[in-house]
Structures are given as C-alpha cells and as structure tokens.
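Dear colleagues,

As part of the handover before I leave the project, I'm documenting each prediction I ran so the next person doesn't have to rerun anything. This entry is a single chain, and its sequence is reproduced below.
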Amino acid sequence: MVWNYTAPMPEHDPTRADRLALYMRARAAEKAAREEAVRVIDRWNAALLAGRGALRSPTIRCSVIAGTPWLDVYCPGCRTSRAIDIRTIDRHPLASVGSLVLGLRCSWCTGSAPMPVIKGLHACPPAARYAATID
C-alpha cells in the first residue's frame, strides 16, 4: 500500500487586512493602557492633594505611560519645591514612585535634612505650568 502524503503548504505572509487588524488591536491596547495609567495617576494625585496618604503609589512605568514623568517634591526643611524628571532616575520601571523618596535628599539643607514630601506627578515641570497660566 502506498501512502500519498503531501506536506502542508507553508504559511503565507499575512494579508494587508490581517496586518491592519493587528495594528489596530495594538493601538487599542496601547490606548487602553494609557487611559488606565492616567486614571491611576489622577487618583493618586487627588489623594495626595487631599492630604490623605495614598495606600499605594503608581510605578515609574505607569507614570511614563500616562505622560506624567515630573515628580513634584517639597522639602519641609528649607520650604522649597523641586521637580524631578523620573525618566532620568536609574531605577527599575516597576519600582514604586513612593519608594523614590527614600533616595532623595535636599541639596540645600545641611546636615540631617528632613524627609522630602511628594506632592504629585505632572506632565510638565511646575515652572512650565506656571508660565502657561501667565500667558
């Protein structure tokens, strides 16, 4: 008995419609991730603004995805506020933004400076936000 077996045809390149569908699914997933990240950041900023300590803080990656990479930090020792671009900090993207405060110390305060206070995450530094309100 002779078996007439033919190998299956190799997969063809996806059609234009398949590529377009894949592209649209990827864009929809990115948009959903961004919207969720924005909701997380807004909820966290609202909790900080209200004076309630947030139980959880967002990750660095969440902040970058949401488009809010500027961390506003206040020093109670010298009563100054600084903005830090968290994209430049060498930490794992899944590290909590709240954990960054442990490594921050005010360069203007001498000796044992008090622990800085996180005021929130923003899309641009405070100076740029202030300049936009003047115009």
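The helical segments are 16-49, 60-66, 126-134. Residues 16-134 form one domain.

All the best with the project,
I.
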